[in-house]
Amino acid sequence: MKYRQLGKTGFSVSEIGFGAWAIGAHWGEQSEKDSLEALGAAVDAGVNFVDTAAAYGDGKSEQIIGKIMKERSERIYVSTKTPPLDGPYPPSPYCDPEVRYPEEYLRTNVEERCRMLGVEAVDILLLHSWTRAWNDNPYPLEVLRRLKQEGKILYAGISTPEHDQNCAVDLIRDGWVDVVEVVFNIFEQEPAAQLLPAAVKHKVGIINRVVFDEGSLTGKFTEKTEFGEGDFRREYFSGDRLSRTVKRVEALKKDLIGYEMSLPQTAIKFSLQQEGISTVIPGMRNAWQVKANTAVSDLPDMADDVIEKLHAHMWRKAFWYFG
Ligand SMILES: NC(=O)c1ccc[n+]([C@@H]2O[C@H](COP(=O)([O-])OP(=O)(O)OC[C@H]3O[C@@H](n4cnc5c(N)ncnc54)[C@H](OP(=O)(O)O)[C@@H]3O)[C@@H](O)[C@H]2O)c1
User: Fold this and answer.
1) Whose CA is nearest to atom 21 of ligand 1?
2) Which residues contact 153 (CB under 8 A, 6 or more apart)?
3) I need a surface site. Which of 72, 106, 198, 216 has the fewest CB within 10 A?
4) Mean pLDDT for the stretch of residues 253-271
5) pLDDT tens digits, residue range 54-87?
6) pLDDT for 322
7) Which residues does ligand 1 sit against, CB inside 6 Å?
8) Which of 47, 162, 209 to mutate to test the pocket of ligand 1 (most atoms within 8 A of CB)?
9) Residue 8 burial (CB count, 10 A)
């Protein structure tokens, strides 16, 4: 496993981190045994960075991570997220930041994150999520600055709203964020335009989420794939979305014929070779997936002509969470 500096935090994080959404909620059946085995295998493989959120099972994902942190002596860096109070998600341009993220709420929520994880202070607290409308009055980030000064959180940032990831660019340039969590993958390459170069310039850590486009970029889906009860992908890939995605993935596979890496390996390497990415956090549900994904760190880089081929598979489909 190779390690990278996470912006200016001083954290040297594994370039493959652990995405802990599915071990908390919304991905159908998931046993705690599998989740703990997956996290244990990740630490064995050198993973020292885990991404979670309050929303992943109302603290369930955080509590499972807390168990592993108690069991293991290795330093494990955790980024977690606080959701805004009731209202549209992601926040709309008409939302008042002081109503969605009042100071008292942020303070109590951070206390709760500490309790769930079993820690004194949160390594990285991200706002889950943001609207560009708040860039000129980033009130919630001012509160997080105070929490940093008080030692309740070590570093702060945002997880981007999917439909306007570039709203983080101003925050990066204006010094409001230590870390930003971004969707970047073979389909969604827009952050390469401005967000990632800005992060490099201003030494802001980048957490790369959804490297597999929620699983499609592992290449395992067919038009007949059915998602289980409680799996959010029933909606995400509903209607003609699954068949359109599968067609795109088939075209990608065709382009990679004769090339020795598997599609999941290619997907992870593609992110790792993009300048500005600090850690890629595939979601992982069992030890097998952990072994497969963490091994990619030690594979040789892809040649420039392969990367160029992958650039052509960018797909401006936007995001599908809400229909
Ligand atoms: N707004 C936000 O802040 C936000 C949103 C999304 C995600 N995230 C974070 O980013 C992390 C990663 O994103 P994600 O989990 O949504 O999606 P992802 O990483 O694109 O896909 C993860 C899923 O792919 C499957 N998988 C993993 N490794 C595989 C392999 N080697 N071969 C075949 N299948 C494999 C697993 O599901 P199955 O086995 O069930 O197919 C796994 O849950 C999350 O866990 C979370 O920490 C944050």
Assistant:
1) 214
2) 110, 121, 122, 123, 124, 125, 144, 147
3) 72
4) 96
5) 999 999 999 999 999 999 999 999 999 999 999 9
6) 61
7) 19-22, 27, 51, 128-129, 159, 181, 209-215, 218, 220, 264, 281-285, 289, 292-293
8) 209
9) 13
Q: What is the pLDDT of residues 137-147, one digit of tens each?
A: 999 999 999 99
Fold assignment, 3-311: TIM Barrel (3.20.20)
Please name the residue whose Cα sits nearest to atom 3 of ligand 1: 159
- Measure the CA–CA gap between 320 and 242, rounded to whole angstroms: 11
Tell me which residue has its CA closest to atom 38 in ligand 1: 215
Its pTM stands at 0.98
CA angle (154 as vertex; 189, 26 as ends), nearest 5: 50
Cβ atoms 286, 56 nearer than 8 A: no
Cα 282 to averaged position of ligand 1 atoms, centre (Å)? 5
Q: Whose CA is nearest to atom 27 of ligand 1?
A: 284
Looking at residues 110-134, what average pLDDT do you find?
98
* SS3 state of residue 50: strand
pLDDT, averaged across the chain:
97
Distance 216 CA to ligand 1 centre (A): 10
Task: In whole angstroms, give the CA distance from residue 100 to residue 259.
Answer: 48
Ligand 1, from 47, 183, 289: best to mutate by most atoms within 8 Å of Cβ?
A: 289
Dump pLDDT digits (tens) for 278-315. 999 999 999 999 999 999 999 999 999 999 999 999 99
